[in-house]
Amino acid sequence: MVNIGVLALQGSFREHLYMLSRIEGVNPCEVKTIADLKKVSGLILPGGESTTIGKLLRDFEFIEPLIQRITTGMPVWGTCAGMILLAKEIVDEEYCHLGLMDIAVRRNAYGSQLDSFNTAMIIPRVSNEEVPLVFIRAPWVERAGANVDIVATLNDRIIAVQQENMLATSFHPELTQDLSFHKYFARMIMDKGNSI
């Protein structure tokens, strides 16, 4: 069994835990403390309020231990707010949170809650079947560094990227019944032999 954590401070962490529970060989774990972080082989940063999650990471002195785990190879996947947390640059903002992924993201790029939408597309790296995509106050990637793989685009906007052990998506796979992205992330962890 591989322990996959979900940062459980705020946001849609319960939905991610449920999705992980449906994958054979995966033990989903809530990560609320630095001790919890040490027990997992990979971590999901869920959707939610990026500003709130970033503040909680600072308040709980999570930033440095999290950066250390990711920079030494622990796979991490940020969905929506999680993408913003990972980015080196937030467009029109003077700050960033973890500052690890060589991307510039625009917060709420698709508009307000009222502008939320669903679509579906084939993302060859992840699945040969159409994957449902749920966008809620979603960011998009405005710039990606040369070392960042663009995994998916929608209407010429970058919505999924991977940089070595870091994966980020604008959308919310945890709000669908489709396991494609969660299985892909589990494979990233298992392929690295990242088991505790």
From TrEMBL:
Active-site residues, Swiss-Prot/TrEMBL? 80 (nucleophile), 172 (charge relay system), 174 (charge relay system)
Q: Which reaction does it catalyse?
A: L-glutamine + H2O = L-glutamate + NH4(+); aldehydo-D-ribose 5-phosphate + D-glyceraldehyde 3-phosphate + L-glutamine = pyridoxal 5'-phosphate + L-glutamate + phosphate + 3 H2O + H(+)
Q: Which GO terms describe its molecular function?
A: glutaminase activity; pyridoxal 5'-phosphate synthase (glutamine hydrolysing) activity
Q: Which domain of life is it from?
A: Bacteria
Task: Give the EC number.
Answer: 4.3.3.6, 3.5.1.2
- Return the similarity comment: Belongs to the glutaminase PdxT/SNO family.
What is the annotated quaternary arrangement, including any partners?
In the presence of PdxS, forms a dodecamer of heterodimers. Only shows activity in the heterodimer.
Q: What does this protein do?
A: Catalyzes the hydrolysis of glutamine to glutamate and ammonia as part of the biosynthesis of pyridoxal 5'-phosphate. The resulting ammonia molecule is channeled to the active site of PdxS.
What is the name of this protein? Pyridoxal 5'-phosphate synthase subunit PdxT
What organism does this protein naturally occur in? Thermanaerosceptrum fracticalcis
Recall the taxonomic lineage recorded for the source organism.
Answer: Bacteria, Bacillati, Bacillota, Clostridia, Eubacteriales
What gene, per UniProt, encodes this protein? Answer: pdxT
